[in-house]
């Protein structure tokens, strides 16, 4: 019951949309009605693959569409596009979608689902002689599309997954840069340490430390990064090393030193901290001992400071770090993302609706919804009104 | 007429979005036209739900999370029970996203 009514409503919506955008497609230099029919065909095919449209009902929609062309012509058209779709499916799937090969076994249901596409495409072809080519192109599109619609849950998400994964990578790249900054910061922090040491010894020594401080810092930083990358390539290790060096130098006194030499050291110090905290737990240990005060002081301004503050010597360290760090980070991210998305897909029971009223009495919630689409247990159910009673 | 993009996340909306994406990416369709189609879908879907759907549903469950942000209610239910006239479904975890119906009438 529910599925049939849902199917009827969906078909109505498809027809409504197609009919109301027809002017846009035909007039004003639009792509033409063939493209519109292609759109409808692919859309309905995806819907059938998703199992939310029933085959028989689709025919009625197909008949309605043919308004421009004779109702009889669609029959011939049906056969042609039907075969074409099947042929195309496997190759196109391979061509367009790498994941499709897995899904290709699914296409067997095509005959049932193909009806809608067939109807749609034929109308376009009948109207336009040239569109035949378009139809073939449409079929190819369908092919590519089919694998995804067939296993609806996997297909739409995979498409999104790639962009998501890309985004994640980018974010990680930034993280790396930041991490690199952190490594670059190490020299600064070391300078800072030297500064602090000079301060301890009192500023007479400070000048000497400054001059000599930069060179050893660069060397130290580069060495540390290389070593770290060799070990695990993780920023946390760098931080740890930093901490050790700091502790060895008895930098626990940093607070006064920071205030005195705050310019360079503060910016560097705080910057790596937030990211490190974000990325790995081991960093926390570092901060507990040494950087707590710095972190608090510079914490908010840190992001701005980070970018501006990056010193020239950094790039060398960055390149090295990037090479080593990227594969590790990317792999981790992808795995996590895939897992998360996969879980979401499997458990993606979703209700989309409008609410009229939401009330709460103590822990008891009541809400009235209307005009909703529910996707539950792989079924689409529409409702005009819904009442919800929830216990929080 | 105001519309919600809410329903684009439904099966029919996702299918349309995928189709448009493919047609835009292979050059058959201009992005502008694709957006027009989506906007029309928003309208048509909303109208169809108003005019063609009469069924009523009751939902019960344990409210795990609630959120109200930008006039959108989001509920995450656990062990939810959905009933309508002829069927009932149980789901161990479901997300409800609801826009303010008053926004449409404005």
TrEMBL record, chain A:
User: Among the record's GO biological process terms, what is one?
Assistant: transcription initiation at RNA polymerase II promoter
One GO cellular component this record assigns the protein to is: transcription factor TFIIA complex
Is Kinase a UniProt keyword of this protein? no
Q: Bias category Acidic residues: which stretches?
A: 319-341
Q: Report which superkingdom the organism of origin falls in.
A: Eukaryota
Keyword Signal belongs to the record? no
Official protein name in the record? Transcription factor IIA, alpha/beta subunit
This chain's source organism reads: Corchorus capsularis (Jute)
Automatic annotation (TrEMBL), chain B:
InterPro entries attached to this UniProt entry:
TFIIA_a-hlx, TFIIA_b-brl, TFIIA_gsu, TFIIA_gsu_C, TFIIA_gsu_N
Q: Which UniProt keywords apply?
A: Initiation factor, Nucleus, Protein biosynthesis, Transcription, Transcription regulation
| A GO term for molecular function | translation initiation factor activity
Q: Which residues are in the Transcription initiation factor IIA gamma subunit N-terminal domain?
A: 4-49
State any GO CC term. Answer: transcription factor TFIIA complex
Q: Residue limits of the Transcription initiation factor IIA gamma subunit C-terminal domain?
A: 60-101
Which Pfam families does this UniProt record tie to the protein?
TFIIA_gamma_C, TFIIA_gamma_N
- Compartments (UniProt record): Nucleus
**Biological process GO terms, please?**
transcription initiation at RNA polymerase II promoter
- Which protein family is named in the record? Belongs to the TFIIA subunit 2 family.
Instruction: Indicate the quaternary assembly.
Output: TFIIA is a heterodimer of the large unprocessed subunit 1 and a small subunit gamma. It was originally believed to be a heterotrimer of an alpha, a beta and a gamma subunit.
Record function comment: TFIIA is a component of the transcription machinery of RNA polymerase II and plays an important role in transcriptional activation.
According to UniProt, the name of this protein is Transcription initiation factor IIA subunit 2
Q: Which organism is it from?
A: Corchorus capsularis
């Amino acid at each position: 019951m529910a599925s049939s009514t849902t199917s009827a409503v969906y078909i109505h919506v498809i027809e409504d949309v197609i009919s109301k955008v027809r002017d846009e497609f035909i007039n004003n230099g639009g792509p033409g009605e063939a493209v519109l029919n292609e759109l409808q065909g692919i859309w309905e095919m995806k819907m059938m693959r998703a199992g939310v449209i029933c085959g028989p009902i689709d025919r009625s929609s197909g008949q309605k569409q043919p308004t421009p062309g004779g109702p009889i012509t669609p029959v011939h058209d049906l056969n042609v596009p039907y075969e074409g779709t099947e042929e195309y499916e496997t190759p196109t799937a391979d061509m367009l979608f790498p994941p499709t090969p897995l899904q290709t076994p699914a296409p067997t249901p095509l005959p049932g689902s193909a009806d809608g596409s067939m109807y749609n495409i034929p109308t376009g072809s009948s109207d336009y002689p040239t569109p035949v080519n378009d139809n073939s192109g449409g079929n190819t599109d369908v092919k590519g599309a089919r694998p995804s619609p067939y296993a609806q849950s996997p297909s739409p998400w995979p498409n999104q997954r790639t962009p998501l994964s890309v985004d994640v990578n980018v974010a990680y790249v930034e993280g790396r840069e930041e991490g690199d900054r952190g490594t670059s910061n190490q020299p600064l922090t070391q300078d800072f340490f030297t500064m602090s040491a000079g301060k301890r010894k009192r500023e007479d020594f400070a000048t000497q430390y400054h001059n000599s401080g930069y060179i050893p810092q660069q060397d130290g930083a580069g060495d540390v990064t290389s070593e770290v990358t060799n070990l695990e390539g993780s920023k946390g290790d760098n931080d740890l090393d930093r901490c050790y060096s700091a502790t060895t130098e008895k930098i626990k006194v940093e607070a006064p030193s920071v205030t005195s030499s705050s310019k360079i050291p503060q910016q560097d110090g705080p910057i790596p901290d937030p990211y490190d905290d974000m990325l790995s737990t081991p960093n926390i240990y570092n901060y507990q001992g040494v950087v707590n005060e710095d972190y608090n002081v510079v914490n908010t301004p840190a992001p701005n400071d980070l970018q501006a503050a990056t010193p020239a010597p950094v790039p060398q360290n960055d390149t090295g770090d990037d090479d080593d760090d990227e594969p590790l980070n990317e792999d981790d991210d992808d795995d996590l993302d895939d897992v998360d998305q996969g879980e979401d897909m499997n458990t993606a029971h979703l209700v989309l609706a409008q609410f009229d009223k939401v009330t709460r009495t103590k822990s008891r919630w009541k809400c009235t919804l209307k005009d909703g689409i529910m996707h539950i247990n792989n079924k689409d159910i529409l409702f005009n009104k819904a009442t919800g009673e929830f216990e929080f | 007429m105001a519309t919600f993009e809410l329903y684009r996340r439904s099966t029919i909306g996702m299918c349309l979005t995928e189709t448009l994406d493919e047609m835009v990416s292979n050059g058959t369709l201009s992005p502008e036209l694709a957006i027009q189609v989506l906007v029309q879908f928003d309208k048509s879907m909303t109208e169809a739900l108003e005019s063609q759907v009469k069924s009523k549903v009751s939902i019960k469950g344990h409210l795990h999370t609630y959120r109200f942000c930008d006039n959108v209610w989001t509920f995450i239910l656990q062990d939810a029970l959905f009933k309508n006239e002829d069927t009932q479904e149980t789901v161990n975890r479901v997300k409800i996203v609801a826009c303010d119906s008053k926004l449409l009438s404005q």
